């Protein structure tokens, strides 16, 4: 690939990611039969196959649109005093676009990057506390001290954590609890179990969720729908109010 093609693919990636689409890159490599027979076991954790000198094929984008009820559910959460934090493995550009689409980042609220682009100044010259919204990359999250994470959670009303690992979800839960918050966490994988257990309310997915995550959770969503959590909160508050009236 020459620099012109690299720039073209990078621009396409940024444009598609900005639309909330997930962009996948494809490449190929001819593996020698004597080293990689048909029954060879590929290991992506401890990589045992070539990862250099690959031939780039192209990009493909796909969109996994959020359910129609999610924006309304996010709005109800906000009006009920519940802070919704998005934690995803998606690229920050894609995560930010989706967060804006469902109202986790409200219209008009800017991130540090937005302010820098609007004022045409370097990001380093922007005061982070001037930004109501924040997108934190998992690579940056692992370098944050607990105090720095607390500062992010305290001074930003709308937060997205992107490119995060399931282990980092646990760190985020602990950070929210240090703020004195009652924390509910959703998860569907085996690796989400520590965060589900640590949270005050662990919410597992009934359809896509693993058995381990369901065992670690306090509540299981039978329809895997975020909006159902809001319904659960409404019912819980109604029961609590009725109990107070009867005591």
UniProtKB/TrEMBL annotation:
The places in or outside the cell where this protein is found are:
Cell membrane, Sarcolemma
UniProt KW keywords: Magnesium, Membrane, Transmembrane, Transmembrane helix
Please, one GO biological process term? potassium ion import across plasma membrane
- GO CC annotation, single: sarcolemma
**Is the keyword Calcium in the record?**
no
Gene3D superfamilies with a match to the protein in the record: Calcium-transporting ATPase, cytoplasmic domain N, Calcium-transporting ATPase, transmembrane domain, HAD superfamily/HAD-like
The main location is membrane
GO molecular-function term, one example from the UniProt record: ATP binding
Q: How does it sit in the membrane?
A: Multi-pass membrane protein
Superkingdom as given in the UniProt entry: Eukaryota
InterPro entries per the record?
A: ATPase_P-typ_cyto_dom_N (IPR023299), Cation_transp_ATPase_P-type (IPR050510), HAD-like_sf (IPR036412), HAD_sf (IPR023214), P_typ_ATPase (IPR001757)
Q: Which NCBIfam families match?
A: ATPase_P-type (TIGR01494)
Q: Could you tell me what this protein is called?
A: Sodium/potassium-transporting ATPase subunit alpha-1
């Amino acid at each position: 690939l020459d620099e012109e093609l690299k720039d073209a693919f990078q621009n396409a990636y940024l444009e598609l990611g900005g639309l909330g689409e997930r962009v996948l890159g494809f490449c190929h490599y001819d593996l020698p039969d004597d080293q990689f027979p048909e029954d060879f076991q590929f290991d992506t954790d401890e990589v045992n196959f070539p990862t250099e000198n690959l031939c780039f094929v192209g990009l493909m984008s796909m969109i996994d649109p959020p359910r129609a009820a999610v924006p309304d559910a996010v709005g109800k959460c906000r009006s009920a005093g519940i802070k919704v934090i998005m934690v995803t493995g998606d690229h920050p550009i894609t995560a930010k676009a989706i967060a804006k689409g469902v109202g986790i980042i409200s219209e008009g609220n800017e991130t540090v990057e937005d302010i820098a682009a609007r004022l045409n100044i370097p990001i380093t010259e922007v005061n982070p506390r001037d930004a109501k919204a924040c997108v934190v990359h998992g690579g940056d999250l692992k370098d944050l001290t607990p105090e720095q994470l607390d500062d992010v959670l305290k001074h930003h009303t709308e937060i997205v954590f992107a490119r995060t690992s399931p282990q980092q979800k646990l760190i985020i839960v602990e950070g929210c609890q240090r703020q004195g918050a009652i924390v509910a966490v959703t998860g569907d994988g085996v690796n989400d179990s520590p965060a589900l257990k640590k949270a005050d309310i662990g919410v597992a997915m009934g359809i896509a969720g693993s058995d381990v995550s369901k065992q670690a959770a306090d509540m299981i969503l039978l329809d895997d729908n975020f909006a159902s959590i809001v319904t659960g909160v409404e019912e819980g508050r109604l029961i609590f109010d009725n109990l107070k009236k009867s005591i």
